[in-house]
């Protein structure tokens, strides 16, 4: 069988081949039968008349499946005596048929694979699950017995079978051991190329041959001792038995699948080294992968290592070696050119002219223009110092030493200047009060940029005796003794024209003249010693708004006036007492102050008294009017609610007012006694009254004792 098996094999090859290595399965076939291969390459069960197709996708519903599906005949050939060939093999697109489809030979055209004809014209009946069927004419070409080579690639995920492209590149032959006769070479068959065959006719007895593989595709190697399924891998030149009768059968046939052996190919990768791997002295040895130019094109799982690592302590060219181990087991090595250089050879310090004051040796680092581009830790020092004892150009030699210990020298031009020639003081106008000579340093705008120790003093003092602009000359003397002069403009002002006091409104109690400084918003901005006084006092004798005039006199004697708005208020207009309800016993007038909730917030000395007393003679709510009088004499009234509560009962003894003994005097009303009528105070009458009074007191005491007892009971 040719194309049907090819299609099945190609499907598996396509599914498994993802890169890696290729196996050569060796299958032998002679007249009388040949092993048939299922889609996965294993031997199929012989003699199957009909095969169920499972796993195919179902098409949309149709009236008859035979009208919907179109099985096509395969362009077939097979070996004489092939008993494994089934009707399903004869349908090229059997995999596209629905699940459950069966295949059978047309009873009128059952093929005879034993010959004698080499061309079999037959037909396959394809039956669908809905009962419909169709008959497909099939033409089968019978071939002579031959040696078949199957190509397999060893890959890290397993074997990739029947690789057509690789099979085309394999050159092999069979050498009979008995006489050394060579048969071949084998050539690809007329199917898509996953097999190649070599026919040897007339072999009637088992004969030993040596399989000789003359060439394999570029980029591959033979892998000994590999195994794939039922194919045991062998080395080249492996000896096999070819042909001979099958046990218990009197006909020639192929060697059973379980005895078939083959060769395995594995992809070989080539390493391409970088043209040159530059390294610096004392550098750490880089990863070996960095030396491989084509690492990105190789499997990512590859592992790289130095076989011979670079010696970064030795400057010069070296030849090192990298090994790569790939996941399919192949190994590749390549030489890598390495150049180790020191930092003095790699870097180039650029000289930079230096300006320096006369007598000052500049830092050698200042003479290297690109020092920041050199390696961290690079040092620069004078190997030959420049002459800085006089102004002019001098030359010094800077030695640059790198972290790796290498060094080089650079000539640097040094311009020696006196400081007066180097610096340029900028004049700055000065404001100064009349009569005050300012500091000459204040007339130099960039004094902080001049060398430490630079002095500035008046060579010609400005006239500060009158208001206006004056000119002075400042002499700037540098630490090296050189000097220059600068004309400075001095603006002489009186303080009244310089400062601007701003008025702000004042509130003041009636009768109180406020502090004039309170009418100046920005007293902190005027100079110390400035005075403020009322030039025109505001009228604070009555509430309302008024205006006063404050005179501001500066330390230099100049002055100016500011009009200040003043708001005069009495305290009654400023404060607002809040009423607070008072609880008081019947008959007790509470303190009026208790009716003012915020009395503590009012000015010290504020008084509160009843202007209208509340009626506390009976229980209930009453209203009183409290007059609040402030220290300034102003006042206002507040209505206060007074809650009059029932007068509390007496203590434990139930008596009324307390006497000297602490006991309350009995109430005559409560004791049931009536007040005696008034009587003239004469002699007898007085005695009678006294007796009556004594009798009443005794009765009251007795009543009190009885009441106390009742209360206690």
From TrEMBL:
Alphabetical list of InterPro entries matching this protein: Rib, Rib_alpha_Esp_rpt
Signal peptide as annotated in the record: 1-38
Keyword Signal: yes
Keyword terms of this UniProt record: Membrane, Signal, Transmembrane, Transmembrane helix
Chain ranges passing through the membrane: 685-707
Region (Disordered): 346-366, 496-517, 644-676
Key word Signal present: yes
Residue stretches making up the Rib domain: 66-142, 282-342, 343-417, 419-494, 495-568, 571-646
NCBIfam families named in the record: rib_alpha
UniProt-recorded name of the protein: Rib domain-containing protein
